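The passage that follows is intended for readers who have already worked through the single-chain material. We present the inputs for a multi-component assembly, then the predicted structure in tokenized form, and finally a short commentary. You are encouraged to pause after the input and sketch how you expect the pieces to fit together before reading on.
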Amino acid sequence: MTQPSFDYLIVGAGFFGSICAHELTKRGKRVCVIDSRNHIGGNCYTEERNGIHLHMYGPHIFHTSNPEVWQWINQFVAFNQFTLRPVANYKGEIFSLPFNMWTFAKLWNITTPQEAKAIIETQSAHITQEPQNLEEQAIKLVGTDVYRKLIKGYTQKQWGKDPAELPASIIKRLPVRFTYDNNYFNDTYQGIPIGGYTQIFSQLLKGIELRLNTDYFKDELPTHDRVIYTGPIDKFYDYRFGELEYKTQTFTHEFKAQVPNYQGVAMMNFTDVETAYTRIIEHKHFDPVDLPHTWISYEYPVPYKASESEPFYPVNDTPNNTIYAKYKALADQEPKVSFGGRLAEYKYYDMHQVIESALNFIRNLTT
Ligand code: FAD
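Having made your guess, compare it with the prediction:
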């Protein structure tokens, strides 16, 4: 029997696929990586335009409390000290996010945590039972004013539904701080790679056979012994148990030729329901450069259609997790295919989590 050209065919050049490719090549395996897109990096892909690194699939802020992951990624790139401090814009009124004493001070003209807690208690006093939906849950946590200005419209745009019709569980983990701390993440390490994310993937895939614009299901593939698949698991099984649901969005990117600083912050959330987009991202604030122009991106939430839309955020509710469990049972029986990453495991992985998962996967791989 003739030997296959590659020991591993890796489907997807995002973090999971690229880490596997890198580590397996170090072990002497013959690896080929394919991606249906025309670039590496998966959803973390950044593209340089006019000297600015654009986050092409939405803003990516690296954050972790895992020293091993932090050390690992720092081999490939240097990070700046970016800290995510988003701003909410409600019909031209500016508030600090996540909800913290800066938000409450602006909203109610108060200064102390005691005052803020007392107002929230008064405004949520009518929710006496366990909250039955997202609206009640939000009001219970932050009161009616914050809900009305900063949660209601934004949630309605994101989910395409009135918050009173959405489950309370979506907002259970709403970050609320009674301190003047508007750092979005609680992690020990945080930053943006200086020069963008794509260089990390170029280094991981250096010297490895890479075929872009190559779809696992449509294109001719080189012969191989095993597969590591990082695409959507429902697609792998031709949706036989039904489609898994994702939240998704589209982006429009805009060059501002004569504008050195458009909005003064990397991320501004538009929380009213009338503004069609949910956020404007100004990329140069992630990785600052002194240039007379800027690039901004508008984010629009759109309904997800499998096979047409980019699957972004898995909707890990009970109906979807039940469908996923059926696919997982099949995947566990595959002798020659392994499934990993956000889409193949249907998990809301952030970058540090997918890195940890890929490194563990490789550690436990015996063949
Ligand atoms: P992906 O990056 O999705 O890579 C999978 C690859 O497989 C893709 O390139 C795809 O084209 C390819 N593929 C799929 N099907 C096929 C096929 N049939 N044939 C060939 N190739 C195929 N994480 C953070 O830590 N911080 C953040 O701020 C953050 N912000 C985010 C914002 C958005 C809008 C999104 C969507 C995600 C964000 N994330 C963030 C999460 C981060 O993007 C993921 O953790 C990471 O990209 C997962 O890597 P992956 O390799 O699992 O998947």
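Commentary: The chain has a mean pLDDT of 95. The pocket of flavin-adenine dinucleotide is lined by residues 11-17, 34-37, 42-44, 57-62, 215-217, 230-231, 312, 341-343, 349-352, 354 (CB under 6 Å). How closely did your sketch match?
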